[in-house]
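Late entry, written up from scratch paper. The run itself happened at the end of the previous shift, but nothing got recorded in the book at the time, so transcribing now.
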Amino acid sequence: MDYSRYKDLKVRRLEPGILELVMGEEGGKLSTATARLHKELADIWLDIDRDPETRVAILRGAGKGFSAGGDLAMVEQITQDFEARARVWREARDLVYNLINCSKMVVSAMHGPAVGAGLVAGLLADVSIAAKNARIIDGHTRLGVAAGDHAAIVWPLLCGMAKAKYYLLLCEQVSGEEAERIGLISMACEQDQLNGKALEVARKLAAGAQTALRWTKYSLNNWLRLAGPSFDASLALEMLGFTGPEAKEGVASLREKRQPSFPPEPKDF
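Output as recorded:
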């Protein structure tokens, strides 16, 4: 499989059967979900699914964290341009469904901030691992839009509705240690052990009975497919929110590094 078209995602073969996907640059800033990275995160799972040399993919972030939120220029474009909004809706949908339907095993290794499109893949991975001091944040409502890019399909199933509502409505951050406690991720470990633990898990999966593993994944992911209508509605409402005044204020507040001052209560929503 030729992965040369991927630029923002660094793809390399760690060892036979195990592929590594890295967001961002080693020693650099947090990986921001640019328009290119957003599309690459949606497309990569189709290639991995068809790759006869890959049994397991590890997704991690380089530098100071796993992933930052969406690029503000892209987010601003979504609020102003219908075609951009439609494109991002399609890619956000494909990211979730392509990852759910990818037959190969996926392991995520999250450290530092884990936000945005990277977090989508991190939490939907078959085995999600985070450093104890990782900071998992879904910031959609802080931006002024519905939590739509993956939250409705997986958070209630992983950590229960009460916890899902608390973290998604308030945009409270979840440490890796707390995420493990509430069941949001598979396991937490010390940050200096993170990459080694992800590789250890990947090796076990790569050595396993591949048909049995893939059919088990397919069966278990039917729970996520059952939540598909909820996800589709949440994603559509997120895109609708980008057309309104709350998203414009959310973007402006982030640009100006201040707390948002959202408009008065809408007459009808």
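The mean pLDDT is 95.
(Scratch paper discarded after transcription.)
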